[in-house]
TrEMBL record:
Molecular function as annotated in GO: sodium:proton antiporter activity
Name this protein carries in UniProt: Monovalent cation/H(+) antiporter subunit G
Bilayer topology annotation: Multi-pass membrane protein
Sequence similarity: Belongs to the CPA3 antiporters (TC 2.A.63) subunit G family.
Subcellular localization: Membrane
Membrane-crossing segments per the record: 6-29, 50-78
Assigned keywords, A-Z: Membrane, Transmembrane, Transmembrane helix
InterPro entries named in the record: PhaG_MnhG_YufB
Amino acid sequence: MLEYLRFALSAALMACGLFVLMVGVVGVYRFRYVLNRMHAAAMNDTLGILFVLLSLIVAEGATFTSLKLVLVILMLWITSPVSSHLVCRLEITTNEHIEREMEVHK
């Protein structure tokens, strides 16, 4: 019985993660400007990957592999927002027509 509950929770977390990632893909295609696209991608990547990896942790159980997945989650939660911020700053500094497209503060 416990195995069915663990499977159901894992499937629910995986479905939530895939839904969040799918919404992120729609956001990337929907928005017109690169900064809006980066915002949609960065916000949904972090949450979507969290749900997917939590699903894998629940499916695996309390093992050494689960500890490794927790470390992957922590690393992604640190590096994903930083890399997105750096790519957006690069776009602001290199695109000379950014002020015509949107309001930015340099």
